[in-house]
Write a structure and sequence with these properties.
With 384 residues, this protein is an alpha/beta fold. It folds into two domains: 127 residues, Alpha-Beta Complex (Aspartate Aminotransferase, domain 1); 235 residues, Aspartate Aminotransferase, domain 2, CATH 3.40.640. The chain has twelve helices and 17 strands. The longest helix has 24 residues. It starts with 14 loop residues before the first strand and ends with a helix. Its EC number is 2.6.1.11. It is found in: Cytoplasm. Belongs to the class-III pyridoxal-phosphate-dependent aminotransferase family. ArgD subfamily.
Amino acid sequence: MSYLFPNYKRKNIELISGTKNRLVDENGQTYLDFTSGIGVMNLGYNDAELNHILAEQANLLWHTPNLYENHLQEKVAQKLANGNDYVSYFCNSGAEANEAAIKLARKVTGRSKMITFTNSFHGRTYGAMSATGQTSIHEGFQPLVPDFVHVPFNQIQPLRQAIDTDTAAVMLELIQGEGGVIPADSSWIQSVAALCQEVGALLIVDEIQTGIGRTGTFYAYEQYQIQPDIFTLAKGLGNGIPVGAMLGKKEFASAFSAGSHGSTFGGNKLAMRVADQVVTRINQPEFLNNVQQLSEQLVSGLKKITKKSSLIREIRGKGLMIGIEVVNQESLEWVMELLEANGLLALKAGQTVLRLLPPLTLSKEELNQALIIFEQVFNQGGKP
């Protein structure tokens, strides 16, 4: 008997340890990791510098309530603003960050209508789940939070029809992760931003999976020539330490006055000490350029495999957030099992997409090793 709710579909392996970009299970089997713990371990596993910083802070203080000053929060917030006029609110997860974004948008505008997109994913708490455009995630939990409207992604006319002066915000992912690794079209994003300005609605960008270097720039929105009113972060921000953040334009600061929102554990000293180092290391031109080079190498190799494979329909994504769409759900399950048997862990997105989220510290040699495994699985169905 298990003493756990069966709300996760777990694989029959337990991962015991990890070093850099590899994981080891309870039987001693080693895997090249192309999951990063679902986009979390951007700097890989067992990083000596992060381990030292975490231990050093643990010997000082783990936690103080947000009733007192916290210079570490100020330090991380300044780095996350990245030279722009944003202020931060810290929490513990992406769902919490999105809940804060929804509350802030409604408080700032005095409006309640929120427009999001089909196949989006913003979390499983009630506000974030209501924002999520997937009916399978809503099942059994109705009634949802009211005034959420879902329209098709990458289509401007349905949004044009839905948005009005009652709209508090339009909320979107620049790459729909759980929905199938679907990048937003640049021209569409420009039109979305323009429509928001026309009606006085805010633009919220969910960067929980795309942020912190994942797409080859520190934030994915930098590639779309927009400046969101609000954006959210989590996953890679703490490299495995639970932490989330919601950033909003400085002019919105007064909307979250004392007592308007909060979190007991949000921005605790352990999380902030690690996040500070993660941001410092990733937000460097050399590091981000290397992510872009690895992306080019990975996509180029996968496209060569695609030419020979009858299983692959499309390769898409940005940076080291790549989706391989296969012909059907059965093929996806078979591919994932065979990759695992060959020592590579990957993820699914939607029903037919293999999602690749390797650590950003992946070496070129490891990437080549992965491509050999992909080639064997997709084209020969055997072991390299």
